């Protein structure tokens, strides 16, 4: 009986598109991109015409869709208008409209859609939406279940953020991506003035030219009392911005903090290590700053690291002393993933990690790029009884040579590896063959040599 129903559904599908579309290729395309259970339609990268969107909007066989991906399809306001007026998507929980040509007018049509009552995730990234579009969407009355909103790479600016944050829609969101939306410090000041957004648990504020001035105002507010994940990459917070955060009670529930490229120095590491509020982190990513060995020593000596599972201190000029501080820290005993790329940790740093009696839970270790690890450092790692939990090891762009490759190929201690990257290590066919034909690394699923 199930087979008969599937045949009936397929016939209904074909009859609809034969009757209503002038583009025979559209029917074939949708059949190809529609999931077997007819719950998901992924048209990513398929260039469509305005009439195609109208046909899709009228396609009753697509009523059961839960997920619709229209990224990079050439969608504009004229194409979104019939989609928004349709009741065909009344079961949608996930809608992606990223990387198109949607403007403020398009957001007006979307805000008036009556069929998105069950929608939970909306992706509007990389369009042409401004402050007016954000305000229009914030007034939507039929998105009462929306939880996640991605507005990244649009030009919302401070007024758009103010409209969104001070709205019913803003207050119901649990996750919002505002990366590169032009909000600046003024936008943070607007956020600081709105009533607490108690449901927000994750926010991305990367690439917004934020400085310590905006962060100091935000940190004194209570706008995000339950925030767990905060991403602030590529801003200008500096040490003063981190100090303000470390002193703020608003961040006491954070478990993930990501702050790439913000001009942070040893002082920022000290602020985090002595913070009385940011004490529950499980993930800390400070890649591409300037913490130095002294900053790592401060972090490693802090009880605030006790719950840490993922730590990224790549590109921080930590050297071998920084690696040694981590290797010797009892506060790092819970680490499962450690990244120290571009840090010149040398063989001495690699040996310290290998000899560590506290980093025994590591499953992923990233030591790529300009760490100057030679065969001697690899030998220590290959013979280490402390790294037997490793499943992922990245050593790209070091100087391990054939000798180091052979140590890896014969390592019983690293036999649990599933992923190994040794690209850019000047291996000859001898070293490559040793790895490719290893009778020890039998669990390897991916080996990257070139």
What does this structure look like?
The structure is a single chain. The chain has 450 residues and is of the alpha/beta class. Among the domains are: 8-182, Leucine-rich repeat, LRR (right-handed beta-alpha superhelix), CATH 3.80.10; 336-450, Leucine-rich repeat, LRR (right-handed beta-alpha superhelix), CATH 3.80.10. The chain has 18 helices and 16 strands. The protein has helices at residues 2-20, 24-33, 50-57, 77-85, 104-111, 131-138, 157-165, 168-172, 184-193, 212-219, 238-246, 266-274, 292-300, 319-327, 346-355, 375-382, 401-409, 429-436, and strands spanning 40-42, 67-69, 94-96, 121-123, 148-150, 175-177, 202-204, 229-231, 256-258, 283-285, 310-312, 337-339, 364-366, 392-394, 419-421, 446-448. It has a 16-stranded parallel beta sheet, with no helix packed on it. α14 runs parallel beside α15. Mean pLDDT is 94; it is low at 1-8.
């Amino acid at each position: 009986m199930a087979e008969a129903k599937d045949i009936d559904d397929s016939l209904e599908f074909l009859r609809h598109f034969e009757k209503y579309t002038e583009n025979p290729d559209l029917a074939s395309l949708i059949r190809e991109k529609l999931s077997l259970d007819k719950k998901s339609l992924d048209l990513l990268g398929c260039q469509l015409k305005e009439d195609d969107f109208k046909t899709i909007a009228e396609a009753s066989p697509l009523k059961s869709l839960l997920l619709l991906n229209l990224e990079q399809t050439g969608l504009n306001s004229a194409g979104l208008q019939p989609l928004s007026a349709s009741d065909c998507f009344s079961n949608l929980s996930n809608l992606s409209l990223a990387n198109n040509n949607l403007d403020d007018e398009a957001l007006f049509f979307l805000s008036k859609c009556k069929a998105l009552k069950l929608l939970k995730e909306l992706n509007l990234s990389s369009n042409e939406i401004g402050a007016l579009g954000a305000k229009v969407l914030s007034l939507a009355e039929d998105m009462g279940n929306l939880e996640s909103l991605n507005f990244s790479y649009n030009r919302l600016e401070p007024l758009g953020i103010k409209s969104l944050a001070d709205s019913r829609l803003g207050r119901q969101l649990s996750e919002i991506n505002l990366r590169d939306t032009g909000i600046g410090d003024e936008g943070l000041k607007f956020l600081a003035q709105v009533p607490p957004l108690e449901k927000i648990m994750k926010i991305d504020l990367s690439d917004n030219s934020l400085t310590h001035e905006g962060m100091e105002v935000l940190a004194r507010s209570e706008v995000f009392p339950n925030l767990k994940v905060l991403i602030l990459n590529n801003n200008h917070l500096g040490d003063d911005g981190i100090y303000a955060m470390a002193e703020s009670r608003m961040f006491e529930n954070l478990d993930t903090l990501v702050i790439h490229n913000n001009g942070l120095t040893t002082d920022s590491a000290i602020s985090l290590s002595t913070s009385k509020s940011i004490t529950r982190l499980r993930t800390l990513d400070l890649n591409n700053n300037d913490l130095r060995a002294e900053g790592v020593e401060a972090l490693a000596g802090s009880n605030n690291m006790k719950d840490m599972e993922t730590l990224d201190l790549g590109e921080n000029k930590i050297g071998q002393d920084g690696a040694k501080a981590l290797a010797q820290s009892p506060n790092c005993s819970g680490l499962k993933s450690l990244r120290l790329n571009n840090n010149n940790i040398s063989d001495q740093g690699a040996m310290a990690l290998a000899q560590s009696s506290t980093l025994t839970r590591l499953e992923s270790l990233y030591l790529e790029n300009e760490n100057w690890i030679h065969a001697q450092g690899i030998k220590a790692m290959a013979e280490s009884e402390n790294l037997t939990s490793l499943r992922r090891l990245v050593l790209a762009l070091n100087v391990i040579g054939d000798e180091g490759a052979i140590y890896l190929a014969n390592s019983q201690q690293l036999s649990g590896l599933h992923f190994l990257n040794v690209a850019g290590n000047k291996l000859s066919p001898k070293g490559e063959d040793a790895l490719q034909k290893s009778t020890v690394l039998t669990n390897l699923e991916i080996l990257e040599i070139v």
